[in-house]
Amino acid sequence: MDTFSGCGLCLPNLTQLPLHHLRDHRPPICVEIKPKCGFLPFSRNITKECKRKVCRFCMHQHYKLANGKWKRLSRYCPLDLFSGSKQRMYVALKNLLEEPQNNLKIFKGGELIFSCKDDAKQQLELNDLIQHLRPYFPHSNGLYNGHQPGKAVLNEFIQVICSALLSGGDSNRSGEPRKVHLSESKPHCEASPFPRDLLRNGEHFTSLPKDSVLAKILQVQMLDNLDIEGIYPLYKRVEQYLEEFPRERNRLQIDGPYNESFMDTVKNCPAEDDGSVEYAVGKVHQYRVAMTAKDCSIMITFAPCEENEEHQLNLEKPRFTYSVSILDLDPKPYEGIPHQHKLDTKIVNYYLRSTQAPPPSSLYKERQECTLLFHAV
């Protein structure tokens, strides 16, 4: 806590549920997910074709591994989570549980029970998590659909998370949630571990319910329709303008305030570049808001409930009351754009170097220069 700060924020504890919802002795379970970017960029400004095929998160894994941030590659892919397909979402969440890094935390009664710290040598213990979850899924403690007990508990747990992420209040007359297809880009990442043969039949390319938390986050993320390669020249246009007219910084709301006027600039930015600084500022602000959505967290808190309880997840057994919240919505700083541009270049270049096989000629040359020495024994 900064004791020298002139103000502070009093925020709710999102790992808990209101007391009137808790009629059961079992404390609430809270899952915090940092989903990251859920689409592939489709801007014509992109210079590296791999960015249209492999998502930023999957490419960034190679860079983090090389720099010692993590010891193992995560098999989680955000495009699977944002797909709306329960099978792809299941695979994404299962991979998060196996390698959470800093994208997954689980709380029980407000206490952290599962996460991955910055120490890359940390050994993850799913068995401990299963023991915490057993009381919430009692019918999974025996063999369930042919699964071993621990696996059955995790399966049920993942289904609860999927249901919460897909839940929404907007339904049509048939009771089915309205779907919304937001992305204009390729609907899957080539680095995803989801089986390609299942993707070919097309049944796993679906859409998100319009009112779901994932659809709302994805819609904001897609305000970045130019990619950092298209934004950086516009940033330099703004910088050149501010060098000539430094007093315009406040009018253009470079440092806020983040009020209705700021949001009007974000929502009403022209679609085509007219060469003005207003267009450049609008696009830069859109990018900053999109980057905030790409780095936000989702908090899913649930606890066992009775049949007549409100805000229930649509599950057969057991029943849970739940809440879904979004946090970590601090605006991304304007000054961070040059860093994002450099980081993007590093990530892409390292990914290309680490995944491209050496040319056959070089392999042949290595074999030519190899010499075997035999010694008498």
From TrEMBL:
GO molecular function, one term: inositol-1,3,4,5,6-pentakisphosphate 2-kinase activity
Reaction equations catalysed: 1D-myo-inositol 1,3,4,5,6-pentakisphosphate + ATP = 1D-myo-inositol hexakisphosphate + ADP + H(+)
Keywords: ATP-binding, Kinase, Nucleotide-binding, Transferase
EC numbers: 2.7.1.158
Domain of life where this protein originates: Eukaryota
The protein's enzyme class: transferase
Entry's Gene Ontology BP terms: inositol phosphate biosynthetic process
Coiled coil (UniProt feature): none
Signal peptide: none
GO cellular component: nucleus
Record bears the keyword ATP-binding: yes
Stored PANTHER family: INOSITOL POLYPHOSPHATE KINASE 1 (PTHR14456), INOSITOL-PENTAKISPHOSPHATE 2-KINASE (PTHR14456:SF2)
Job of this protein: Phosphorylates Ins(1,3,4,5,6)P5 at position 2 to form Ins(1,2,3,4,5,6)P6 (InsP6 or phytate).
Recorded domain comment: The EXKPK motif is conserved in inositol-pentakisphosphate 2-kinases of both family 1 and 2.
Protein name: Inositol-pentakisphosphate 2-kinase
Species assigned in the record: Cyprinus carpio (Common carp)
Lineage, highest ranks first: Eukaryota, Metazoa, Chordata, Craniata, Vertebrata
